Amino acid sequence: MGRGVRVLLLLGLLHWAGGSEGRKTWRRRGLQPPPQPSEDAPAAGRPVESFPLDFTAVEGNMDSFMAQVKSLAQSLYPCSTQQLDEELRLHLLPNTSVTCNDGSPAGYYLKESKGSRRWLLFLEGGWYCFDRENCDSRYNSIPHFMSSTDWPPTRTGTGILSSQPEENPHWWNANMVYIPYCSSDVWSGASPKSDKTGYAFMGALIIQEVVRDLLGKGLGSAKVLLLAGGSAGGIGVLMNVDRVAELLQELGYPAIQVRGLADSGWFLDNQQYRRTECEDTMTCAPTEGIRRGVRYWNGLVPERCRRRFPEGEEWNCFFGYKVYPTVRCPVFVVQWLFDEAQLIVDNAYLNGPPVQEGQWLYIQNIGRELRHTFKDVSAAFVPSCVSHEVILESHWTDIQVKGTSLPRALHCWDRSLQDGPKAGKAPLKGCPIHLVDSCSWPHCNPSCPAIQDQHTGQEMSVAQFLLHLGVDMHTVAQQQGLEPGRLLGMLGSGS
């Protein structure tokens, strides 16, 4: 950042805070400004606590810089910035023909950021259902995933939807939209309620209708629209991001740059560790549940992906590594190498009796296979952890891959796209956007989220976790070319 730009930014901050007065003092949060003296009154004798703003932080550490900007803003204009509105408010869609599963109106939660031309639309996740019996059970147990009837009037933004720079360094001042998942169709349906299914499946139409409604609330002047989502919402991003861009083009908004951020929606269509009957979404093999669902929902898949597969094989497009090569909009993929949802549907989940050697080898192979699918993905953040979803967690800033945090990687990706996506554009120096862990067993990354013992509730170290699973540490050490004692020491210290 050049010296002139730094000065202009500082002047802009002063002007934004009502700084046409020349004698503004910068005070820390929580201190009340003293009564203003008259023109003739002598200056108070007590010292004024100053707040240093280090602009060089921008060049090497954007997280630190954004925290300083917020602190400066709070000092200059405490009435507005100390009471930042964290709440996103519910808006039901005026087009009542686009509904949740039970026919109640779909909707979204919105927190506007006046003056910002960046919009973040988040698609909620939450599995799916694939037949009448399965959907009836879902409606009885988790009705908020199928109806808007009991949605609260507000939600609090967290993680990448937070308006606090400490929690959300690069998107804190964007317009935030949270779209609840009430279609149970992985955001792919376009079918109204019928006697045959008993439910509406309109996930794809809900996204389009939300975008249409937001155009009248400021989205029309946006520069960037980031369509994000977690789990089923992450799959929904890959399925719908191009469709959103095409809709905006058709409606006369071609200048809005549409991008995608898919969190924990990138799965393998592999063979289960132990085959079970397909009774619900958690016992079905990865491909079988989706096959049944697509037929039941009459799900829509991206046209470019659909053309790659024979008729009746559209289910392939629900798997990230198969649909990604056909997506035209830039997409950043966030995925745990050992995703809990993948382990559940593969019947290889780790919360149970000690793992057998075959199960351990199967789990390690999941990591290897998933890592291979990211070979040609330009922007990805893939830690070797056991978890599911991250971008709405307050601790999302703590996860690192090869020394780079997820917010930092997203900021680098954002910078690389500032002039529009360019094929073959080299990544910015010191700003990596393809970050895939290379260690080969679950939770070998020391920044992974804490693991809790299901029985005691106590946090476990990585070494304790592996021993809890019944993993043979001698075998693991041999695989890594280490002495068992040295391996345990490394794991215990978080190396």
Automatic annotation (TrEMBL):
Example GO BP: negative regulation of canonical Wnt signaling pathway
Record-linked InterPro entries: PAE/NOTUM
Pfam families xref list: PAE (PF03283)
Molecular functions per Gene Ontology: palmitoleyl hydrolase activity
Region described as Disordered: 24-46
Signal peptide: 1-22
Alphabetic keyword roster: Signal
Superkingdom classification of source: Eukaryota
Keyword field contains Oxidoreductase: no
Family: Belongs to the pectinacetylesterase family. Notum subfamily.
PANTHER family noted in UniProt: NOTUM-RELATED, PALMITOLEOYL-PROTEIN CARBOXYLESTERASE NOTUM
The protein, known as: Palmitoleoyl-protein carboxylesterase NOTUM
